[in-house]
Write a structure and sequence with these properties.
By secondary structure, the chain is α/β, with parallel strands linked by helices. It has two domains: 5-303, Queuine tRNA-ribosyltransferase-like (TIM Barrel), CATH 3.20.20.105; 314-404, no CATH class. It has helices at residues 48-53, 63-68, 72-78, 81-85, 97-105, 119-125, 157-167, 185-207, 227-239, 259-270, 287-295, 305-311, 343-347, 350-358, 362-389, 392-404, and strands spanning 5-11, 18-24, 27-31, 33-37, 59-62, 91-94, 114-115, 135-137, 142-145, 152-155, 171-173, 216-221, 250-253, 257-258, 279-281, 300-303, 314-317, 320-323. An eight-stranded parallel β-barrel has the order 4-5-6-11-12-13-15-16, surrounded by six helices. The protein starts with a strand and ends with a helix. The relative contact order is 0.14. It binds one RNA strand through helix 5, strand 16, helix 12 and helix 15.
Length: 405
Amino acid sequence: MPAITFTINKKLEGTLGRAGVLETKHGSLQTPCFVTVGTKAAVKAVIPEQVKDTGAQVVLSNTYHLYLQPGHERIEKAGGLGKFMNWQGPTMTDSGGFQVFSLGSAYGKGIGKLLKPSTEPILSAAPEDAKPKLVDIDHDGAMFRSHLDGSAHYFTPEKSIEIQHAIGADMIFAFDECTSPMEPFTYQRQALDRTHRWGKRSLEYHKSKPISEVQALFGIVQGGRHEELRKESAKVTAETVASNGEGFDGFGIGGSFAKEDMETAVRWVNEILPEEKPRHLLGIGEPEDLFMAVENGCDLFDCTGPTRLGRTGTVYTSTGKMHLHNAEFRDDFTKLDAACDCYTCTNYTRAYLSHLFHAKEMEAGTLASIHNIHFIVNLVDRMREGILDGTFHAIKENFLKKYKG
RNA sequence: GCGUCGGUGGCGGAGUGGUCAAUCGCACUUGACUGUAAAUCAAGCGCCCUCGGGCUACGAAGGUUCGAAUCCUUCCCGGCGCA
């Protein structure tokens, strides 16, 4: 009995898109599926029952963060991630690979998952403004300096998987290195080889443990913006097998992108990855990106957007994003989004949310996050239905026309 | 009434002769956020203008000085003390 089973119900004709069902030991996911982010075993500002009510099916936590706090052994003692945080459904953990990037080459430079076109010259002009990074990478692994207390911690692929085994999520990720699109080709080349070696070691370690029958391991494809590297990475990752002959249970597509590079990268990769296994586009979540990714064959997506934006006062609406701090909403007694039936929209007005944000009430972040999670989860659900009933393209066109207005 | 301390930008509060359109908080305005270093961060915040600069400003009015938010005089207002 494999850790997960993935069944494709219908494909989106003429594209790489598909709708399916992914079954885990803690329930099944209807894909395409938006994965809610709960980095530190908590979806920030939202309790699990509310998360569930938004329609969210699965929560993704983070290995690096939980290792530092409260410690993976403690989560294991608690009975695993889901039990610890009172989330009944499926769970995932990221490997810490993204922190190799965010606390490493990206640290203090104001760059993240997506490169802002305008920052490129600034960054290359003034790299000395960056804070000293907290990560040192070598052949074998990565040394992290805790962002909490400065203490040193060394992650290898085996260590990351060991921690993820203790945390106990249904789906876990290989330890990888997310690279910055700013890095030159020669560095992308080296880093990719490293990610492949680490992937193989992650898989080998994972498959050597009985728990691999319960937890599924996803390998991660990198390669930056380079076609040659992306395609090679897809092939290598797809063909990687442990000594017991088994490969990855699914795949993650990673990287920090320039927005215009993302679609081609995803397509190059998904044309090569085996169709019968699930594909997770790591860290992507803006509406237009989700349409792109679904159409190009991705099944899972996670993104901090809904909760981070929500907490900081921005909400998604069918006509675009809205900054609730703005003066125009102080006397606006309509709901956030006329087309939304989430808990927040059912019960509260823009003026009330505006008040909560200005008053710095915690409930502001909660209500806005609930709305945002619902908005994105619901959007991906509609994409799924669109694939199943043949209306995907119409849904996409209608949505984007209004959203991009 | 006498004495005393004080009146600074929306608010609190620095400054106490030049480097002051005025530190800093807050509020306000706007922006950013895509495998969470984030309930965070950035910019703006007297008026005019394109960088540069110009103009009006530190209760009011005068005065001293090359130069005043800063010193002097009077007045107005507030706190406190004594009558």
